[in-house]
Design a protein that fits this description.
373 residues; alpha/beta; Rossmann fold; Helix Hairpins; Heat Shock Protein 90; 3 domains; five-stranded parallel beta sheet; five-stranded mixed beta sheet; 9 helices; elongated
């Protein structure tokens, strides 16, 4: 259950406070009251409200002065504030409130429906921003882990080498150096993923489009990953359309798309499972907005853990990591699917996903064939 959101209501008139208190509590909010600007400042730091409803006309310290103090305090500067004013025609006061950092304003007498609508709108934004911050924190934690672990392996190998542990055993030294090299390449891949996502989000990723054969790209990727499939006991099946048309694309980036999708499928498919990779041509009319003409299609389907219905719309988000069928988050940064979506869309294509918990997932990537606008 979500934690109840807390609102600090500030008004020097007791009747107004009672009205606000009852109205907000009926809507399921926790309410804290303050009858002065000074009390508001104290309770804003001790109670940690999600929103402050602040009357302007108060003695000693009016609402604008109070708002100035709130915005000047590191602990309260980001708390959203709705200001209440008795004069709907006082444009100067309204302008002053916004210039001082108010998020909304309402006039008295209070329209209860409008107040609740504004409150809910602001609190939805507050909740979304907090979720994003938590996702960023989780992402950074995963990133540190994903870089620290392989770096420790590399350092360990180098320490053994400098200590002379391999002096009498060149074969063992070669084995350890190969392990360090493979680990370094994984780290470089992660760093490249991060850089690619940043470039894609900034619109600065430049594509080098040339005529490419999707079948060749898929075959190369399968060749690299079939050993992993064998080690995991997963049947890897490939069905390539021999009449597949050439597509104008950045071969390196599309290889990244195929690698991420196939790697993801192998990661989430248990032993004795199956992964099927297919290519084929499809002609779209007007049935899907944004797609018209001939397209090269790539399907990557697995019999893995699947994705819950509510998670499917979120899996391409940069900071999100889908959960397994048991509700456990998988290790990794989750950047792969973000890259798949952004690269595909940069080529004028689209990505579709079908999934069911415990049954598996199918990703479908469509890229314009050569000659499409």
């Amino acid at each position: 259950m979500d934690e109840r959101q807390k609102i600090l209501a500030v008004d020097d008139a007791p009747d107004n406070l009672v009205l606000l208190d009852r109205l907000l509590k009926r809507q399921g909010f926790d309410v804290v009251n303050a009858s002065s600007g000074k009390e508001c400042l104290a309770k804003s730091t001790s109670e940690h409200p999600d929103l402050i409803i602040l009357d302007v006309a108060m003695p000693e310290m009016n609402g604008f002065e109070t708002l100035t103090h709130l915005r000047g305090n590191e602990l309260t500067k980001d708390i959203p504030v709705i200001i209440l004013t008795a004069n709907s025609k006082d444009a100067k006061s309204i302008e002053e409130g916004f210039s001082l950092g108010a998020d909304e304003y309402l006039t008295k007498p209070i329209d209860q429906d409008e107040l609740i609508a504004r409150v809910r709108s602001i609190l939805r934004v507050v909740k979304a921003e907090r979720e994003i911050e938590q996702l960023k924190a989780d992402f950074q934690s995963m990133l540190v882990h994903d870089l620290r672990s392989p770096l420790s392996v590399i350092i360990g190998v180098l320490e053994l080498g400098t200590a002379g542990e391999f002096d009498q055993n060149p074969a063992e030294m070669k084995e350890f150096l190969n392990s360090a090299l493979e680990t370094s390449q994984k780290m470089l891949g992660l760093i490249n993923d991060i850089l690619d996502v940043a470039k894609l989000e900034a619109g600065k990723l430049q594509l080098s489009k040339q005529p490419n054969d999707m079948n060749s790209i898929v075959a190369d990727t399968v060749g690299r990953l079939k050993v992993l499939a064998r080690e995991k006991g997963i049947a890897l099946k490939v069905e390539l359309d021999p009449d597949l048309p050439i597509c104008e694309c950045d071969g390196g980036k599309i290889d990244q798309v195929v690698t991420n999708l196939l790697g993801n499928a192998l990661k989430f498919t248990p032993r004795d499972g199956e992964v099927i990779v297919r290519t084929y041509k499809k002609t779209f009319g007007e049935e899907i907005p944004g797609l018209k003409g001939d397209y090269v299609v790539l399907d990557v389907a697995d019999t893995g853990v699947g994705i819950s219905e509510d998670e499917v719309p979120l899996i391409f988000d940069r900071y999100r990591q889908a959960k397994s069928s048991k509700g456990v988050k998988q290790k990794g940064t989750g950047l792969g699917l973000t890259i798949v979506k952004r690269v595909t869309e940069a080529h004028g294509g689209k990505v579709f996903v079908e999934s069911a918990l415990g049954k598996g997932t199918k990703f479908t990537v469509v890229i314009p064939a050569g000659g499409n606008d």
